[in-house]
Amino acid sequence: MSSPEYPPRGSVIEPNFFSNWGDLWYPRLANTLLIPASKIASLTPNHVTFLSFGLYSAAAGLIVVGGAWSVLAAVLLPVSYVLDCLDGQLARYTGKTSAIGDYLDKTLDVLKIFIINAAMAIAAYDRTGRSLFLLLGLMSCFGFLFRYYIKLETMLGAVGRDNEYLDKSRELRQALYVDLDARRTEPKDLRQKLAWLWFRNRSFFALDEAEHVTLGALAALVQRPDLWIWIFGISQIFIAFVRLVQRGNQLARRPESLTYPLRK
Hints:
Distance between the termini: 46 Å
Radius of gyration: 20 Å
Shape: globular
CATH class: Mainly Alpha
Oligomer: single chain
Number of helices: 9
Mean pLDDT: 87
Order of helices and strands: HHHHHHHHH
CATH topology: Four Helix Bundle (Hemerythrin (Met), subunit A)
């Protein structure tokens, strides 16, 4: 019986047009596990998705418990995110993609955000007795969810106006990746190096899923859930407001720019 023909391992990593060091580091770690994982016949991408969710939830519970358990939480959070990157790679590599798999991946990703916010808020409240941290947790969840809503509403509106919008957006996205790779040169001086460093890592300040995990692990390690919840409680509302104004301005003045990749 011949073995299935798989695509090159590196090709299953998503293009990194808007990726920072965190968004690149985790998928590359997952990529090192891809070949061993693909050789386990009984392992499906959905199994990896549920394992990732279980480890993430366990880490959140350990953050609430606190003490020495927070150190274990600081380890489990990055591990769970590596597995979160692995499920999609495994699906593309082995051809085991499915609608339910994509659905589970997307919905559980959002649920993880709620879980870690709840854990950090409860842990901060438990240590300080200040109910403000519970409010900050709600603010963070609302801001992140509103960012999702703004992106989806913008895309749905664009599809309603042009039923070829998604195809055009996908084609432009791939063209941007090719163009970026073609124009990429080695920075020659300090100014160019700093500019390239900023270009590659500015998306870190969007505080997306990878940043929730990375900063969450650091907060667990130093046992400062209060600091984490301050950062995300304020930033998620601020970023949501920026996106609201940004998308509105694009709709009113530059609707053609909505074809470019949209961040939530």
